[in-house]
UniProtKB/TrEMBL annotation:
This is BCCT family transporter. InterPro entries: BCCT_CS (IPR018093), BCCT_transptr (IPR000060). It comes from the Bacteria. It is a multi-pass membrane protein. The keyword Transmembrane applies. Residues 538-575 are annotated as: Disordered. PANTHER family: HIGH-AFFINITY CHOLINE TRANSPORT PROTEIN, HIGH-AFFINITY CHOLINE TRANSPORT PROTEIN-RELATED. Belongs to the BCCT transporter (TC 2.A.15) family. It is found in: Cell membrane.
Amino acid sequence: MAGASTLARGVFYPAAGIILLFVLFAVFATDATTAVMNTLQSEVIGAFGWYYVLLVAAFVIFAVWMGLSRFGDIVLGPDDGAPDFKLPVWFSMLFATGMGIGLVYYGVSEPLSHFVSPKPGVTGDDASLAQAAISQTYVHWGFHAWAIYVVAGLALAYAIHRKGRPVSIRWALEPLLGDRVKGWLGNVIDIVAIIGTVFGVATSLGLGVLQVAHGLGYLDVVEPSTALEIGLIAAISGLAALSVASGLSKGIKWLSNGNMMLAGVVLAVVLVLGPTLFLLRSWVQSFGYYFANVVQLTFDTLAFRGDEGLAWESSWTIFYWGWWISWAPFVGVFIARISRGRTVREFVLGTLAVPMAVATIWFSVFGGAGLHQEMTQPGSMLDPATGEVNTDTAMFQLFASLPSGGTWLAVAGIVLVVVFFVTSSDSGSFVVDMLANGGNPNPPLWSRLFWAVLQGLVAAALLLAGGLQALQTAAILIALPFSVVLIGMAVSIVKELSTEHRQIVRAERRAARQQLTEHVTEKVATTLAGRWEDVLPPAPGALRLRVPRRRDPRAPGPGGRGGPKDADETPGPGG
């Protein structure tokens, strides 16, 4: 196969080997894997939780600055190049790939969870708790998540489309590391990116499978079980493999566009069948509350809440920051690949502001409807067996509460989860394979299929090793090494854009000086020519100025007198 010759052996084999070892260890030493992951989670959260919070806050500031800075007009590609995808298609592809499956899984359950089991320190009546719950959800799914993607995507898009580098994480760090990205250090960077991508996508697959299994149970199709979850992983991975085989312009594009339309229909139905006026008012109010409190919510580490605060942070905020960071190489490469021709400002606004608006609408409708149902009928959105929120079934419980919408909305929800994962797995496999093939934008089909299958195996291994807890732990752990890469990418893109901006300014100044010189020269020449015409008008019929000739001072002038001396003639003695 033609693409096989591009295989980067120093990247492909180490990354695949490490991931396969984890899968084997998790399957054949499940209890030991669970114990190790639990220990690592407690150690990482305890030691680095503050680091994740500070880092993500810095990325938000960085992304906003990039969008508003003097670099905004620089094109991610040739100066005269047009974008590869129209704006609606571009948006649907980056959004569905970036976090679509998580929105479906947490759309109802997260605001409801924050309401029923509030964040430590949050108190008040039901209205206050509901408002705090929606705002906390906005923090987890809004600017912060997409700011991480801006850092990775912008650095990669500039390196790939502006500088002509291969599609690989290492080249985004070239301004910082120089030629060292071509050796073992570059291989390590790409290996970390591949492992992070595989585990990030596997985490999403695991969450989606848990929800699909309980959705089928809700429809009385089959009883949820570990065997069912493993079977669903195999089936969905098979669908992802078919999508992988169809390529970027067909499978991912069609699936993402179709799924975004289906998601829009389900959103509209919940808005219309639910408490419409309440949901619209809630969205407007929550948006303002979020912006009024976003700084405090961003930097809150619950430092004075002891073990209770640390446990909450690890289950929610730190898990999300780790999840988004682990997805950064995958989403960054993908949105960079589809963003050729966009300016830096367009890229930042498209990647940061628009998904934020859509996420707030989504959670205000789904989360708001779930909160309204629980506030008006206490206990109706809780698990009857435990009296707590069941994240796997909350969406289906909400659908059941809507008039004439339970069954078919549940089916639509299952389809959304499946297709969102297929899209993520498809694009994730594509990105991983580009990294494993030295940045080849058209890697061979066999290796794309290999990574799609491997993602399914990792998801199955994580479920066997502890279910949701293991999925969260994997996301947090894998994000730690790649966070260092992200910092390097941020430094690199600032360095590159600053250099290019200085060159642009110098070129503009040179052009302005040249234009001014030409203008002044033309003006002076025109003025002098006009004055010569006034002093010495041309003879009748003459086509050009008559230039006065030097007269011989000895020649008789008018009246027989000697002519005037030349101005530059030096008088003789006695003159």
